[in-house]
UniProtKB/TrEMBL annotation:
Residues covered by the NmrA-like domain: 1-199
Name under which the protein is recorded: NmrA-like domain-containing protein
Coiled-coil annotated spans: none
InterPro entries named in the record: NAD(P)-bd_dom_sf, NmrA-like, NmrA-type/Isoflavone_red_sf
Length: 203
């Protein structure tokens, strides 16, 4: 069973992605095409947002640390994303390796209590830390305009963040066809980490 190192968003659902960040999805799809044409048994893992990159910083770009005074909010802050402790990603992935239910399928890591908006994430941090942050909303047009004149890595990051927090690319579809499964339903015995528990590491 081959599990390509994709994780993140499912590239099969990102054909509309913004340039230049789209190249990462296109390249992953080329690998998938080769896997499938060679009839290699496989499982694709869509792990969504790794907590270490998105949770302590409340989804702020260019830092991994919690904000102290203010937090930038993408749009109205109500678009849902999915946040996963990296150890839980590993636990679900290991279970898939020899599970016939996961053969030649895409497995989404979408445990219900970790489907959260940015506002919900901020509220959890404020409750735990006892600090109220100033919220600075960023309209989508302003956010996309910030891509101009920046380096390639930043342009890719802005594109991905736009899809995540304005478009809702992780949650704006239902898992339903015969080639998709949801990990927490397949493996309900895994006690995954909730994000308020994860945040306690940063107090």
């Amino acid at each position: 069973r081959f599990l390509p190192s994709e994780f993140g968003m499912n590239p099969a659902r990102m054909g509309h992605a913004l340039e230049p960040g789209r190249v990462s999805f296109d390249e992953k799809m080329e690998i998938r095409k080769a896997i499938e044409e060679a009839n290699i048994p496989h499982t694709y893992i869509s792990a969504n947002c790794f907590a270490a990159y998105f949770v302590p910083n409340l989804c702020q770009m260019r830092t991994l640390l919690p904000p102290k005074e203010e937090v930038h909010v993408y749009g109205d802050g109500n678009v849902k994303a999915i946040f996963m402790d990296e150890d839980d990603v590993a636990a679900y992935t290991i279970r898939c390796i020899d599970d016939p239910r996961a053969l030649n399928k895409t497995i989404y890591l979408r445990p219900e209590e970790n489907i959260l908006s940015q506002n919900e994430l901020i509220a959890k941090w404020e409750k735990l830390s006892g600090k109220v942050l100033e919220k600075i909303p960023i309209p989508s047009e302003e956010f996309l305009a910030s891509i101009k004149g920046t380096d390639l890595a930043n342009q890719v990051g802005i594109g991905h963040y736009y899809h995540l927090f304005y478009e809702g690319c992780l949650t704006n579809f239902d898992i339903g066809d015969n080639w998709e499964e949801e990990a927490s339903l397949l493996y309900p015995e895994i006690q995954y980490i909730r994000m308020d528990e994860y945040m306690k590491r940063y107090l």
